[in-house]
Design brief:
Number of helices: 2
Distance between the termini: 79 Å
Strand order of the largest sheet: 1-2-3-5-4
Order of helices and strands: HHEEEEEE
CATH architecture of the domain at 37-58 and 66-139: Beta Barrel
CATH topology of the domain at 37-58 and 66-139: OB fold (Dihydrolipoamide Acetyltransferase, E2P)
Shape: elongated
Radius of gyration: 23 Å
Number of strands: 6
Helix content: 10-25%
CATH class of the domain at 37-58 and 66-139: Mainly Beta
Length: 152
């Protein structure tokens, strides 16, 4: 009986040692499937362009933090391509790109692709949101005619 138990324990230690030596694939916190601006438009509830004018961290000063904690970004909207969007629109994104959040830069213009979650708009790295640059016309997304944002 003692021999069977020691063989079993020895086998477990050997198997455990081999598992440590096996190569492990790299881990990615956030990875996105490639999509076109048209596909992103179809998936989104709201699409607009505007400049980031404010950042609010509802959990600032909290002792326990997560990369998924929400950051509320406020945009001065200049064009609406889809959905109901206010002239000053708040959008929520996770605090870190490790949780697929977007670290917007204050004063910078973006084209935002967002989904509605209750009363809030949310966006993530994989949504299609991007900083607006002076791109040639052939590189601009094929979006519907835009409208002037409505005041709320």
């Amino acid at each position: 009986m003692k021999t069977a138990i020691s063989i079993l324990i020895s086998g477990l230690f050997t198997a455990s040692g081999l598992m440590v030596l096996l190569p492990t694939p790299p881990a990615f916190a956030c990875s996105c499937a490639s999509s076109t601006p048209e596909e992103a438009l179809t998936r989104s509830d709201a699409v607009f362009s505007g400049k980031v004018i404010a950042r609010h961290d509802p959990k600032a000063g909290a002792r326990l933090r997560s990369t998924a904690d929400p950051i509320v970004w406020t945009f001065a909207v200049d064009r609406v391509f889809k959905g109901k969007v206010a002239t000053q629109q708040k959008v929520i994104s996770p605090a870190s790109d490790a949780s697929c959040g977007i670290a917007f830069k204050l004063g910078t213009r973006y084209q935002v692709y967002a989904r509605r979650s209750g009363k809030n708009l949310t966006t993530f790295l994989c949504s299609g949101t991007r900083q607006l640059l002076n791109l040639p016309a052939q590189q601009q997304p094929n979006l519907p005619t835009c409208s002037i944002p409505r005041a709320r």
